[in-house]
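Appendix B. Chain record.
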Amino acid sequence: MSAMSPNRFREALSNPAVFPVSWEVVPGRGAREAAQERVVRLAGQAASGGMIHALTLTDNPGGTPAMSADFMGAEILALGIEPVVHFTCKDKNRNAIESQLYALARAGVRNLLAMSGDYPVSGHQGRPAPVFDLDPAHVLQLITELNRGPEHPQTKGIILSHPCDFFAGAVVSPFKATEAEQMAQYYKLKKKIAAGAQFIVTQLGYDARKFHEALLYMKQNHSDIPLVGNIYILPYGAARMMNRNELPGSVVTDKLLADIDRERSDPDKGLRARLLRAARMYAILKGMGYNGVHIGGHNVAYEQVVEVIRQGEALVPQWTDLVRHFDYPLPDGFYYYERDPETGLNREKPAERRRRSGESGGDCAYRLALFMHWLLYEPGKNLHGAMKTLCGRIAGTGLERVFHRLEHLVKVVLFDCRDCGDCALAETAYLCPMSQCPKNQRNGACGGSYQGWCEVYQGKRECVYVRAYHRLRRRGREGQLAEGIVPPCNWDLYQTSSWINYYLGKDHAAKGQGGKSPGAGATGP
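Structure tokens predicted for this chain:
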């Protein structure tokens, strides 16, 4: 199939008369095992049935190795249905990611869903090293550049002559429990769309009001971007794992888990109830105004997906009556909009956000960092000129090593510095994303946090962007987290002085990339 042939998934998603359905399948571990053969069989059924517009392929879900979603995508495309490849950042550096994109473009696989990916947990002879060289915003920027073709310069003077034709989307979770977590999701969404995201898929949850919140937010802020709702045909085993947060980012409340537990006593062990729940959600999402749905579920048969679609279409005219079946709020959960008591959904007016007790932030290290920024990093003011002169004289001399060691000692004590040399401290309220985020997210939180805790260190370490939000909110500057895209770390600067790099114009802050200019007080090491 030609890479420039019509993209049926993109066409369906942009057509108001069509409500496209994508179906998630898992390639599984192995090459010619039952899991891979099942995916091929399901793809053939979906292609011939005509009710499903695309198959989405997971990339090492749960952080464990599996068949490459890229290769399976090419095989599925040959069967006559569009694949949507989950394109994650966890296992490859930026060169490998660019190479992967070239291979996908040549194979004609164009639909990508960019995400950070699950933190690696197992591999050959132990846990593999997580990579996270780029985050989803960076990947979307790269894809946008490749789609421009001739405008994308390569190394050694080579210029691409053929533009790629990727249709790349991103993910957002409206199902977060706390204000800081939820606003971090929406701030990062803004960056993903600025980077080139062409469609958005929600994370997994069962709160109708939260689905409505995501839709209202998109309409008010990003009205031209299609929004796809996530539906999971939920059995008890998966529900219990999600309830325990063993599948980070997926939300199942205690109330929902209890309902599913009761359904297990039915003669069919809850199958009819599962399909009906998914069909009701389908009807609600279509009735609300979503542009399509994404259906998933463990070992779900093609006939079950078709049944969800058929039941869902029949229920659309009464979708407002179905909202009551999805009243599964998180305890004391945050909502961006005011509740509408008549519909059980939201009014279009954002709710007043009051600072809650227990918010972190405002510590001595942050106040000291703000003072030092004011004193040293604002061009034309205070000691900026003196520091620039000093760094210019020290650079390249024997004193540079001493200066660097002194800087690193100070920043290890204050910020747990990893000495990357291309500092992003100021963009995250002086909380280092390279040392305090296991996924090295320089543009906002991943989707895996839970109740404010980091996905990897549940109950032990707060998400760094939750802490940053609290610090900034105390000063009314939390919107800074949505400003600009912070570039990936330039590893040419690794283990060099970030102070010298800044004052001599080498790092991203000095070049004016990412957030505000140094003079506005938002960047600078």
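Further analysis of this model is presented in Appendix C.
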